[in-house]
Amino acid sequence: MVEYAKEAVGAAFDLDAMRYASEQSWRAVERMVAAFQPGLRESEAVALGRQILDDLGMERIWHPLHIRFGENTTKKYNQPSEGDPALGDDDIFFIDIGPVFKGHEGDVGATFTTGSDPEKIACAAAVKTVFDDTSRAWKTDKLTGPALYDYADRRAKELGWVLNLDIQGHRASDFPHSIYKAGDLGQFDRCPVPGVWILEIQIAHPSKPFGAFYEDVLI
After folding, report:
1. What CATH number did the domain enclosing 208 receive?
2. What is the pLDDT of residues 84-119, one digit of tens each?
3. DSSP-derived 3-state class of residue 90
4. Separation between Cα atoms, residue 201 and residue 160, nearest integer Å
5. Using CA atoms, how far apart are residues 179 and 206, in angstroms rounded to an integer?
6. CB 87 within 8 A of CB 72
7. 148 touches 122 (CB < 8 A)
8. Are 127 and 198 in contact (CB under 8 A)?
9. Which end of the chain is more exposed for a tag (fewer CB within 10 A), N or C?
């Protein structure tokens, strides 16, 4: 399956186990969304999310939970949140989790809204559209990493949003993928093989302080 060193995996790697890690991670996201209600603070959401992952049989965390409310949805994964905001009645939030199941790394994220703010609802929908369209382009057109993010940038602009090009995806694998250094997906100059690359899409409103995030394994 793996021809290039940047796509190397460990001896335990199994594509079906990678699918399971992703599917189980999405189950966790679904439970978190059901549990997160207006009034909950970001720090409380992180603690609740960790408990949900433990209940689902997570073996360990390979990257911290990133749960962002409101204006913090414009933050990158490596930027701290501003304060500890409470989820509002007409708000936007995203969940980004990195658990290990069956020795393989799940890494999924998605954006949700409370209430009926039309722009925030549109933002959450747009990031999923950009992800889906970019993923489809990978499958049908065999795009390289840079071409994938060029496509995502164009698609986001067409929809009226700004793509954060500092977020460009990364490797995943059987744990720990960090021993297989590969750089960002957006810099990988070949068509990514299935099951070992995470496509990350983060967008923002062109003038207002909120955004959206979506990620999953290309598989």
Report:
1. 3.90.230.10
2. 999 999 999 999 999 999 999 999 999 999 999 999
3. coil
4. 15
5. 38
6. no
7. no
8. no
9. N
| Residue 1 reports pLDDT greater than 60 | no
- Contacts of residue 105, defined as CB under 8 A and 6 or more positions apart, other chains included, come to 18, 21, 62, 98, 99, 172, 173, 174, 175, 177
**C-beta of residue 112 within 8 angstroms of C-beta of residue 87:** no
- Count of domains for the chain: 1
Alpha-carbon span 200 to 217, nearest angstrom:
9
Q: Which domain holds residue 111?
A: 5-217
pLDDT in tens, 127-160: 999 999 999 999 999 999 999 999 999 999 999 9
Element at 68 (helix H, strand E): strand 60-69
Closest CA to 59 of 14, 32, 33, 28: 28
DSSP type of residue 156: H
Q: How far separated are the first and last CA of the chain, in Å rounded?
A: 13
Reply yes or no: is the peptide bond before residue 176 cis, omega within 30 of 0.
yes
CB 46 within 8 A of CB 209: no
99 closest CA partner among 184, 9, 4, 31? 31
As given in the structure block, the two tokens for residue 212 are 């959206």
| Cα distance between residue 126 and residue 198, in whole Å | 19
**Stretch (H or E) spanning 215:** strand 211-217
pTM: 0.96
**Rounded to 5°, angle at Cα 23 from 126 and 49:** 80
Q: Which amino acid is at 136?
A: R
